[in-house]
Each structure stands twice: as structure tokens, then as C-alpha cells.
Specification:
By secondary structure, the protein is an alpha+beta fold. The protein contains two helices and three strands. A three-stranded antiparallel sheet has the order 1-2-3, with no helix packed on it.
Length: 71
């Protein structure tokens, strides 16, 4: 079956880990802020990101709760 990404771009991997579907304009920094994790965490959980290039539609494990950072 075909799954449509949620409006926020958040899904779940088969392992149960939260997943973010990359959208046009997304950056590692913005995604890390959205999920309350570091860019280093994203690269560790998604080794293919070592080059830093994101592709629209790519699914990234964002193993952290979605929350806002304090300002």
C-alpha cells in the first residue's frame, strides 16, 4: 500500500523509531531543531548523511521526541 506523509513530515519506521520525510527546503539544522536532537545525532542515526546532502522524499530516522527548543 502507498503511504502519504503526514503534513509535518513525521512518520514511523518499521522499528518504531520516528522518521522525518525530507521536504523541499529542509536542512539538517532545521530538522534537528524540530525534533530536539543534534545534527550529529541525525548523521549517527542516518549514516548516508555523512556527505550532508538531503533529497526530497528521503526518510530520516529522528530518534527523539518532537518538541520545541527553549529560546
Amino acid at each position: 500500500s502507498v503511504q502519504t506523509p503526514t503534513p509535518t513530515g513525521a512518520e514511523q519506521a518499521a522499528s518504531g523509531a520516528p522518521v522525518h520525510v525530507v521536504r523541499r527546503g529542509d536542512t539538517l539544522w532545521a530538522i534537528s531543531r524540530q525534533y530536539g536532537v543534534t545534527k550529529a545525532d541525525l548523521v549517527r542515526w542516518n549514516p548516508r548523511l555523512s556527505g550532508g546532502t538531503l533529497r526530497v522524499g528521503e526518510r530520516l530516522v529522528v530518534s527523539g521526541e518532537k518538541r520545541r527548543h527553549p529560546t
